[in-house]
Amino acid sequence: MKSAFCFLIAAKRCEIAGLQQLALTSALVNATGRFIHALQRERGLSNLYLASQGQHWADERLAQVACCDELQAEVRAAFDTLDTETPRAGNGARLFSRIAYVLQGLDALPLLRLRVQTQVWSAARATAGYIRLINGLLAVVFEAADSASDPDISRRLVALFNFIQGKEFAGQERATGSALFAAGCAQADGQQRLLHLIDSQERCLQVFADFASEPLREAWAAVQRHDTQASLERLRRILATSLPGGPLDTGLSQIWFDACTARMDTMKTVEDALAAELEALCHQRLAAATRDLADFQKWQRAESLGEDLPEHGDFFDEGQAAPAPPVNLGHPVQAYGPQVERSILELVHEQAQRLQQMGDELDMVRASLNERKIVERAKGLLMAHRQLSEHEAHKTLRQMAMNQNRRLVDVAQAVLAMAEILPPGLR
Amino acid sequence: MKSAFCFLIAAKRCEIAGLQQLALTSALVNATGRFIHALQRERGLSNLYLASQGQHWADERLAQVACCDELQAEVRAAFDTLDTETPRAGNGARLFSRIAYVLQGLDALPLLRLRVQTQVWSAARATAGYIRLINGLLAVVFEAADSASDPDISRRLVALFNFIQGKEFAGQERATGSALFAAGCAQADGQQRLLHLIDSQERCLQVFADFASEPLREAWAAVQRHDTQASLERLRRILATSLPGGPLDTGLSQIWFDACTARMDTMKTVEDALAAELEALCHQRLAAATRDLADFQKWQRAESLGEDLPEHGDFFDEGQAAPAPPVNLGHPVQAYGPQVERSILELVHEQAQRLQQMGDELDMVRASLNERKIVERAKGLLMAHRQLSEHEAHKTLRQMAMNQNRRLVDVAQAVLAMAEILPPGLR
Q1: What pLDDT, on a 0 to 100 scale, did the predictor assign at position B332?
Q2: CB B75: neighbour CB atoms within 10 A?
Q3: How is residue B55 annotated by DSSP?
Q4: B310-426 sits in which CATH class?
Q5: Least crowded by CB within 10 Å, which of A90, A118, A375, B206?
Q6: Where is the signal peptide (chains A, B) (predicted)?
Q7: Do A96 and B10 touch (CB under 8 A)?
Q8: What is the phi/psi pair of residue B248, to 5°?
Q9: Structure ipTM
């Protein structure tokens, strides 16, 4: 018959397995982030190349394609290190299925590039292709963010995912602005899209700010006070406030591209810092859990040898009902102090309570992720069935929430519930 | 380099692994449910035995102890079948840690029984002991309910967990009412507690009704229209409306115990039906996923042999953007029809979309579980810091929600957020 100790140790081993998986996933996220950044640049250069009818940017574009291929190889190598042989419960199914999707896109990438090279596709169509591939890569990162069972790690993954997503909107903003300046003429459609991209970007960066650690939140705030940001804001204003049909200075095209690129490169450094912090945290947690496991095993051996152990404590004694002092989640190592002083019952209590507390915190993190997802889904529904743009859909939801004095997520939930009772044909 | 197919198959294998783990967990939940039911009866009989100063119920109690020991052996056997050697990510850590806690309680159970046998402990204290052990067992069931990644299974697990939890409140109601009738005198404390238990019971049964399948919801509704329920309601009224300090007919003690027991036995049959439905669903999903896997593998072999396969489809072609028709989650088998007609890309799309849809539904299920947990946590906080009973804490939250015209969960979240900013000493 398995003892309480056996399960206590098994629980710790599961925790370690989860953390190891997470460390692996975080390496995958890093490689994917680097590749996304390079693809964003390839997209921008392809845009400029197509806008100039292939007169300019040809060399820069080809150099960037070569750079992307190197990073693509790294991403594929990271995919290959994932253990696809041992089936695992949890988010494995979703992660692997996202990867299968991305691999289809990577296999088709040479064809997309050929279409750009030979100018068969328009800038808009090529951009849409790159966006699709990048979205597939972002979905891989998202699955990782959804899998952590340590709330601190989960929080940082959420911050990282939203930052990367925000950077992608910045990349799309660069493409949209470039197209407007290159056309030399303000167009309502493009202007609308630009505003929407700025809006989406800011929402992502807000989530990042809500979930990131203090130092990284401050690092990002400091970067934003930089000169480049002011010059970008000036160009944004020109793009957004020019009368549709009116002229736009094509000479600003290059300045716009450079300003946006500078911003994205800065974002990449913050992204790298986020990823490094995440990796360090994973390893720190892993080291702590490994130490705990060694302690548990030492104690189990002592028990099996019949050595003198502290009393077991009384399970039904009301004194035991008092919750153990909250374990400092930041330093799980210290929390397990000298164990010889403590009863097994206290240990079990503490472990259960620590996991409970982590679970509670995780629920909170998940709840806010969930709310975001529900709002996005309701927006998607409105876009599909009322032919609204994403920006309009968001505005509609916000207006409904204000009118009804309800939270955005409640309104979104009501919209989704409504859709469920519609006959399939009308959905 | 691993292909998209390789990851598609790995994803399916993960799904299968998750379902297998779930089938195992559901067997564990069954055994635990049977043991809880028997322990509830042992608690009731221990109560009656202590209330009669050991004059009555001695034999019935001992017979029930023997019955509990048999079921305990089954639960321990179910614990032993869990694979504690291969560490798994996901909820393994929490599940195993809950089990470690329960094992401590089971090891201490003989001592609790001795205290009852020798009448060293009062009925109230013994009841509290049994409640603690049963709560530990319920926590094991809860971890199972929290682990499913198939929304239909998750919904049924939530229904089952809440039903079992509701039955436990019914068991505590039986004990509280028995104590009141045995004392022969209405006491405000006990009456308050009785009302609270009825209230908690009904909330659990409401969640059950919200998540259960139609047939089982109806089965439960049909059972409640039964005569026993009317007689129970009459006794509840007598208990609740007698003036504190006024007499209670001790002759009703036996009738009350029998009426409550009849109700709990009926609840057990519904619980069994819930568990059977859950097991059947697990096996059905498992069979479907296994068939899908076989199809995928057949196709992969065909591909590796260079056999004629339908076209891959164009990843970047906008026609592919149109979402595949929603897969009927109830019948995943049919959804994968004759695959020879379909491109790999469509297959990948479909698989991703199906998992996405499952994930979306799961979010909804989790969101409502989460809300419940947040409300419970806020109640716990109010109980601890304002010295309120659970019933008062719930009433306070409800009143706040009504006054502020907000949802219960929003008020609960506000209460928790408030606590976070208090200095540790005041929490």
Answers
A1: 29
A2: 23
A3: S
A4: mainly alpha
A5: A118
A6: none
A7: yes
A8: -125, 140
A9: 0.75
What angle (nearest 5°) sits at the alpha carbon of residue A111, between those of residues A109 and A112?
Answer: 65
Write down the pLDDT at residue B61: 95
Which pairs with CB-CB distance under 8 Å and at least 24 residues apart come from A279-286?
A: A279/A23, A279/A26, A279/A27, A279/A30, A281/A152, A281/A153, A281/A156, A282/A19, A282/A22, A282/A23, A282/A26, A282/A153, A283/A23, A285/A19, A285/A150, A285/A153, A285/A332, A286/A16, A286/A19, A286/A20, A286/A23
**B147: helix, strand or coil:** coil
Question: From B11, which residue of chain A is nearest by alpha-carbon distance?
Answer: A93
Q: How far does the CA of residue B105 sit from the closest CA of chain A (Å)? A: 6
Asked whether residue B36 carries a pLDDT value surpassing 50, the answer given is yes
Tell me how crowded residue A34 is: count the other CB atoms within 10 A of its CB: 18
Q: What letter would DSSP give residue B316?
A: T
* pLDDT tens-digit readout, B309-357: 555 567 777 655 433 333 222 222 233 333 444 566 777 777 777 777 7
Contacts of B355 in chain A (CB under 8 A): 93-94, 97
Side chain identity at residue A411, one-letter code: V
Question: In which residue are the tokens 């019952």 written?
Answer: A345
- For B96, the closest of A3, A7, A111 (CB atoms) is A7
A2 and B359 within 8 Å at the Cβ level: the answer is no
Of residues A87, A128, A366, nearest to B17 (C-beta) = A87
pLDDT-derived band at A309, boundaries 50, 70, 90:
low
Q: Between chains, do A316 and B108 touch, taking CB under 8 Å as contact?
A: yes
Residues of A in contact with B6 (CB under 8 A): 84
Rounded average pLDDT over B193-222: 90
Q: Does residue A363 carry a pLDDT above 60?
A: yes
Band of pLDDT at residue B37, cut at 50, 70 and 90: very high
Average pLDDT over residues A374-389: 79
Give the separation between CA B82 and CA B76, rounded to whole angstroms: 10
Whether residue B39 contacts residue B24, with contact meaning beta carbons closer than 8 Å, is answered with no
d(CA B130, CA B171): 11
* Closest residue to A99, CB basis, from B7, B94, B367: B7
Judged by CB atoms closer than 8 Å, whether chains meet at A14 and B107 is answered as no
A7 and B79 in contact by Cβ < 8 A?
Answer: yes
Residue showing tokens 């159970």 = B109
Beta bridge partners of B247: B185
Q: Report which DSSP code applies to A243.
A: P
Helix residue spans in B336-389 (DSSP H): 344-386
Question: Between chains, do B14 and A89 touch, taking CB under 8 Å as contact?
Answer: yes
Within chain A, all domains assigned CATH 1.10.10.10 are found at 342-427
In this structure, whether the domain defined by A342-427 belongs to CATH 1.10.10.10 is answered with yes
Domain with CATH 1.10.10.10 in chain B: 310-426
Determine, for residues B80 and A128 on separate chains, whether the beta-carbon distance falls below 8 Å.
no
